[in-house]
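All the exercises in this workshop are built on plain-text protein records. Instead of coordinates, the fold is spelled out as a row of discrete tokens. Once this layout is familiar, the rest of the handout is easier to follow. The record below serves as our worked example for the rest of this section.
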Amino acid sequence: MCEQNVTANVSETVIDKRVAVIGIIVSEPSAVESVNGVLHEFGEYIVGRMGLPLRDRNVNAISVVTDAPAGVINAITGKLGGINGVSAKALFQKL
């Protein structure tokens, strides 16, 4: 009986989590430290990250793959978008 409850809880947790890619554009060099701070804060939900500097345009493009509840992904995107010189959007997996 305990085994069924554990299995049910694990299944609910997996269902509640979503895979998403967060696209981030940093156009203000002074914002890089704040962006890294937000990503560190939510590090437990980040599967991988790739950043590309576009030096000739003074812009950094970052993609972050997450596995987290939708509310957490929205919180990450919102915090990033609230930083001056940063744009962030999330693309969620289809259910």
User: Anything to note?
Assistant: Helices lie at 2-16, 32-41, 70-81.
